[in-house]
Structure formats: C-alpha cells, structure tokens
Amino acid sequence: MNLYARYLGGCAVLALAATLTALPASAQDAAALSADAAQNDWATHHGTYKSYHYSGLDQINDGNVKDLQVAWTHFPERATRGIQSTPLALDGVLYYSGSYSRIYALDGATGRTIWSYAPELDEELVAKQTHSPYNRGIALGHGNLYVGTVDGRLIALDLKTGKVQWDKRLLDSKKITVGFTGAPLVVKDKVIIGAQGGEWPGRGPIFGIDGKTGEKKWEFFTVAGTEEAKETWGNDSWRTGGGGGWMPGAYDAETNSVWWGTANPAPLYDWSGADWKKSGPRPGDNLYTTSVIALDPDTGKLKFYHQELPHDAWDFDSAVGEFVFINRGDKKLVLHANKSGFVFVYDRSNAKIENVWQLVKNINFVKSIDPKTGELIGRRDLTLGKQDTPLCPAISGGISWNSGAYSPKTGLYYKIGQEWCIDVTVEKTTPILEPMAQLNIGATFKTVAPPDGPVHGHLDARDPVSGVKKWEINYKEPPLSSVLATAGNLVFVPDAEGVVHAYNAESGQELWSHNNGLGHNAGIISYSAGGKQYIAMPAGWGSLVSDDYATLFGEPFKSMAKNTGALVVFSLK
Amino acid sequence: MRKSIVILAALAISGPSLSTAGQAQQSTTATTASQTPEPEASTSDIDGQQVFLNTCGFCHENGGRAAGRGPKLANSARSDEFIIQRIKKGKLGSMPAFGSAFSDSQIIAILAYIRALDE
How far apart, in whole angstroms, are the C-alpha atoms of residue B64 and residue A334? Predict the structure, then answer.
C-alpha cells in the first residue's frame, strides 16, 4: 500500500480523485501512472502511461545543473553488449536489469545493494541468438518486479526480497529463436509483454498475464491475428512471420486501451516492386505488422489499429516509438514515432490520423506521407538486384527504440533523429519457416552517408502535434540513448561517445556535460530518495545498431569496451 | 580448386557432428576426397550465397565485402578452420553460434561463398 500512498502524495489531482471515491488499489495505481509527470518515483518504463519521459522534480534545474556530480555507480555482472535498460525507482529504491535479465535492487541514495537476482537461462539457446542477451527494461506492480527473458519466460520477483514468485514460459524460443527483451507493462491486474521478432518465423505475440499468478489470460498474434489480417498475407506467407511487439506500449485508462507498436514482416526486403499486392515473398498489406494496435487489456481483443507502413518493405518497425498522450483543446491525441523517421499523430479514441510530420531529413523510401490520411505517397518499392540510389533512412532507422521526451512545461517534444542511408541489393529468398536462428533479410546492404552530408544525428525540440521545430542540436554520431526532460527546465541526452549533456529545455543551450567513459545505449530517469533528486542512466556499449559505429566513425568506438557497463547516478554537490 | 580445399578443410576439422566425419577424419580424408570427383555433391544443392545473405549479411555488410557490424570477410586471412569454428560457435557479445541452425553442408557452402568473394 505504501506504493500507492507515495503515488498519491506526489500528485494533487490524484489525491483529489482518491478522496472522491474509494477506488480499489489497482485503480489508484493506474490513475497515478496516468499523470503527466513522474514525481519521486519512476514506476514504469516510459515514466508514466503518458510516456513523457518527464520528471516533475526540479531540485536540479537550469540554475544549478552545473553543480551536478556523480553520487554513486553500480557495476552489473556479465554486461554482455553493455546495458540497454531503463531503470525504475520506487520508494527510494532503484531497480534495473542487465544482460541475461539480471536484476539489481539498490538503495537509491547510496547505491548499496538490497538484493540481486540472476535467472538461470538456456545458455545454449542464448549463444545462438542474434538479438541477445540484452534486456531493455522491467515493470513494477502487485508487489512484484517483472522481467522477460531471451529464452521466452516472464518472471515475477517479490519487490522487497527478490524472491521468485512465479516463472512462466510463454514462448517456445528454441523453435522460434526469439524471446523477450522489452520491458513489460503493468495494466490493472495484468502484466503485458511483447515478444521479439521481425526477422524470424514467429507471429509476434503480445501476452496478457495475471500479475499475481502468472497465468496466461490472453495472447494476441500481431501476425495474422484475425481472419481479416490473415487475408493480407498472400500464399499463406504469414507463416514467415515477423511483427514482434518488442518494446513496451502505453495504457489509456480513459478508453481502457493498451497501445502497442509492432515490428516489420519477414523477409525485411522484398523484390516484388510495385506488384507487392500480388507477388513476391509476402503479397499484401501483411497485417498487423508495422502497425500501432489498441488492445483491450482485459481480453486481448483488438479494438482498432493503424498500419503505419502497409507492406513494410524497408524494415521500418512501429515497435519503436513511445506513445505520447497529449490533449489539444478538446482533442485527445497520441503521438507515435515510426522507425522510418515519420511521426504519426492519432486521435486516441480510434487511431484516426490527425497529422504526420517528418523528423528526419533524409527520407526517400516514400516521397511523403499524407498528413490527413496517413497514405504513403510515392512508395519506393524495391526490385531484385542493386538499387540505383541509396535507400534512406538506413536499416537502423531514422528513429530507433530509444525514447524521446515531452515537457508539459515547455510544450516541446524532444526526439533524436538519425541521418544515414544504405546501398542495398535485394536478393530473392526462399521462405524460412524453421529451423531456429536463421534470419530472413532478403538483401545485402552497406551503410552510407545521406545526400545532405555525413552520417549524423540530431536532437530536435518540436511542437509534438504540428512538428514545427524550435531548436536542434547536431551530433557527429546519432545518440542511441533515451532522452529525459525535467521540470527543472532541463533536457538530458546521454550520447554515443559516452558524454551526457544537459540542455536548457527552452533554448537548447548546453549547461553541463560529463563523460561516463562508455557509450550510452539505454534509458535515463530521475527520481527522489531521502528528499534528494537523482538522475540515473546506464552506460555500456554494444548493440546491432551501435556495432556499426566503429566502421562508420572509427575512434572512440573502435576501441570502446563492449561487454561491460555501469549504472551512473548523479546528484547536486 | 578453391572449393575443393574448402570442402577438405571442413571435413577434416568439423568433428563428430559431421555425418561423414567419423569415417573421413585423419588419413582417410585426402584419399576419400581425391577418389571422389565431386566431394561437394552433398552441398551442391545449397546456395551458399543465399544462406549467407539471408542471415550473415545483417552484420557482414555488402555481402561480406565490407566491414559493418561485423568484419569484412572478403580476402580474409583467417583459416578455413577458424571461419568454420566461428560460424559454429560464434563469439560472445558479437556473433551467435550457428552450429545448430546451419547444417554442416550449409556451413561449407557459406565458407565457399566467402572464399569466392571479390573486393
């Protein structure tokens, strides 16, 4: 109950709601998580269900951030491929996951270990996996901590002791290669988690699990999950799969809808050109891949959806991109960034398009996307063989899975864009249904500079609905970490070289920086312990995107240590 | 000629998991190979390029001709034995182990594809 009490203490609106009605504990929990700002706690992956990655704390602000210094650090065991997770904080305790789904519960003020947990994984399987053994986050609820594993399990640990409450196998990972790397999402009595999968013959299921017992309550197949969807995969090509919901979505309590993004179909690339509706490896729209879907959290039934890229032939997932809930006048909207570099704005009640705007400059897989309908205009559907001009953005995307931030104080959305392209040669493939561990790519490629200059990245501060830009900061290398905004008029960006920057949220002026010594490829949060504000971020390098940096940029990436990392926590002097 | 060397190397080093290895190891290897005009017959139906491009090309860019997430493989100075073992066992934190995903014949076909790569 202390959990709920702390939520309510941090939010006057919620406190008012609690006094008006005697809500059950789970409902209070959900209401608190629906606040704009994370306050003393950071209790869910995206900060709150609104996914602002915004802290309401302002002890650390634009006037004193120059005095920020390292408070403590923590080093996890077996940090293979660095650390890619977003920590959580509750009641002054910081929780985070490392590779192999190892969990650490630490005193938020001192870093002293309270408990740790290391699941026994199928090591033989893990060694065979391409997108492994990193873990990108955890969830808290029902007195438990939840974490998925790359060998297909969801585990519940007692929040106070780390003792296993239940350990449930949800996927036959030996067969389909993949498991779970994304954070779960707690919604009422359920834990919801999506599987990996874009390049493998799985059906990208999203699961609804009873938080108390671990019992599976529902499973939604993002690949051909309905009869309507199955008809969009010609020649039974749904069997080649894809569509994993590999990052966590968000929950809209007002409509009782869970928003989730799905990955691309397999193979990634397609040789059918303009005839993709009738020929090629997967003729048709391939529902519900590269889509945003709204599920009923109680039943797992699909309520509505929008396929951002029908018949995605470029590996531009919708699994990336947080769901930012914003109200404009009487309009209740949700913002979602697609890997292609476009940002979609939807009506939250039905996923109808309100606007589409372009974050990334170098895009040529389409000429544009209709901002009123979402229709792709001037698709560049590839044909067999080497393409005459590079495809933009590159396979790593104009946007990656690292989250942006929205400040209700400035009204600005802070999001990282990536500018790069690929020389690509499309290859004909035969359907891969089994065995495990084979990918299904359908092309060979090489990352190259975009037309407007060298490969680079940028942090944009934009109006979230119109996309109008207020300021921009350029980076030699695209940052791969999430962004944090705070009520202290600050925006934090941990960059690829290992430097964490603090900017004035209104102007973009850099106010402070610190070199953590390793590239960042994870989340960043703020929380309070003992009445003091902290900023916490993992440093640690190594992923399928960052592994390209040594070739692209040379040093410091050529010599940057992988398979190591640290959680670094800052506070004022 | 290059392909034959590749096949011989694979037969010689790939250990008991190769179906033919139990008989073909050590002194019998060269003899068996020399008496068999097409020792690669069992792999002749496997398109090493397609296997490579579908799975390996994600990291070994431009079909293995350029460094990317993984190293450039064209004109690699690594031995056949090293490459076969790396495919089978992988490298922690960098490359998965494909020893059970690919058959021995497929691995030999991949090696042959790598050895035939131009810059």
Answer: 42
